[in-house]
Design a protein that fits this description.
- The chain has about 150 residues and is α+β, with helices and mostly antiparallel strands.
- It has one domain: Gcn5-related N-acetyltransferase (GNAT) (Aminopeptidase), CATH 3.40.630.
- It has four helices and eight strands.
- It has helices spanning about 15-30, 40-50, 95-110, 125-130; strands at about 5, 10-15, 50-60, 60-70, 75-85, 115-120, 135-140, 145-150.
């Protein structure tokens, strides 16, 4: 079952097909580089079964979403697994709005951290995450792991 946090922070039922469609559009536009290194079918199945989503619409059009895992209270860290905006809506502050909503949910649920991975050459995304308090805490050849902390232990 998929639930989506609306802008009013209430949970509502969501049809995964619109999310999956936007993912496939980006995957095709990037010639398979958007989601790489994992079996995309398995990844989509995991998203559908376990992720939570914050979505933003412009009229009836899905302008963007964030998929995240914030559903295991035994963990100290929530994890943002996917941030995706419809190409037509990039550069309009939507990702920032979505990120604020996700971080508010993580904080409200008592998580200590929110983490994510980002490609080293995705400079726009890195700036966005830094603007919202994320900092790099781990590096490998192609990616950074970033984290923001809500409170100290």
């Amino acid at each position: 079952m998929i639930f989506v946090l609306s802008q009013s922070k209430g949970l509502k039922r969501c049809d995964f097909k619109e999310i999956e469609s936007l993912i496939w559009e980006e995957q095709n536009a990037s010639k398979g580089r958007f989601i790489s290194g994992v079996d995309i079918g398995h990844y989509l199945k995991k998203l559908k079964q376990s992720a939570e989503f914050v979505k933003k619409y412009s009229g009836d059009t899905l302008s963007g979403f964030i998929a995240f895992y914030c559903n295991d209270p035994t963990q100290k860290a929530a994890f943002i697994t996917l941030v995706l905006l419809n190409d037509k809506f990039r550069g309009k502050g939507i990702a920032s709005e979505l990120l604020k909503d996700v971080l508010a949910v993580c904080d409200e649920r008592g998580f200590q951290y929110c983490e994510l991975e980002v490609e080293k050459d995705n400079f726009g995304a890195i700036r966005l995450y830094e603007k919202h308090g994320f900092s790099i805490y781990e590096k490998n050849d192609t990616k950074y792991r970033m984290r923001t902390q809500f409170y100290e232990e």
